[in-house]
Amino acid sequence: MKSMQELTAIREKMKAEITLADKPGQKRVVVGMATCGIAAGATPVLEAFTEGVKDAGLGETISVKQTGCVGICQYEPVAEVYDGTTRTTYVKMDAEKAKRIVEEHLKGGNIVTEYTIGATEV
User: Fold this and answer.
1) How far, in Å, CA of 20 to CA of 63, rounded?
2) Up-side HSE of residue 51: CA atoms within 13 Å toward CB?
3) Radius of gyration of the chain from Cα atoms?
4) How many Å apart are CA 122 and CA 117, to the nearest integer?
5) CB neighbour list of residue 16: distance below 8 Å, 6 or more residues apart
6) How does residue 118 score in pLDDT terms, banded at 50, 70 and 90?
7) Are 93 and 66 in contact (CB under 8 A)?
8) What is the pLDDT of residues 77-102, one digit of tens each?
9) Which of 39, 82, 98, 105 qualifies as a FRET site for 33, CA 20 to 30 Å off?
10) DSSP of 33-77
């Protein structure tokens, strides 16, 4: 990212694609997009989740959102999947990991444990 214009363009593109309101019973994917997350590469992660959910036809049951600081900067980029009362925190993400999570967790219902905070060494 080299300019505010580029950041603004990314923001506008993502606003058009990201669901702003949850529906009852809907799963959520939340990607940390504070300065530390963006610097660590969260933008391609957010894009991969957004496109993956859309391409898989899961937009009615899964929303993808961005948030500010998650508070665990050493693990950025961070994405969290909320499913009812369960939250799964994925860390040190990249676009390929996001695609795998869409396939295995969001579509298949199986947590990708090796990407979770409990399985990651600092």
Assistant:
1) 8
2) 12
3) 14
4) 10
5) none
6) confident
7) no
8) 999 999 888 899 999 999 999 999 99
9) 105
10) -SHHHHHHTHHHHHHHHHHHHHHTT-TTTEEEEEES--S-GGG-S
Residue 77: per-residue pLDDT: 97
Residue 2 CA to residue 56 CA, distance in Å, equals: 32
DSSP string, 101-122: HIIIIIIT----GGGBGGG---
Q: How confident is the model at residue 12 (pLDDT cuts 50, 70, 90)?
A: confident
Query: Beta strand 86-90 with 27-32: parallel, antiparallel or unpaired?
Result: unpaired
Give the amino acid at 84.
Answer: G
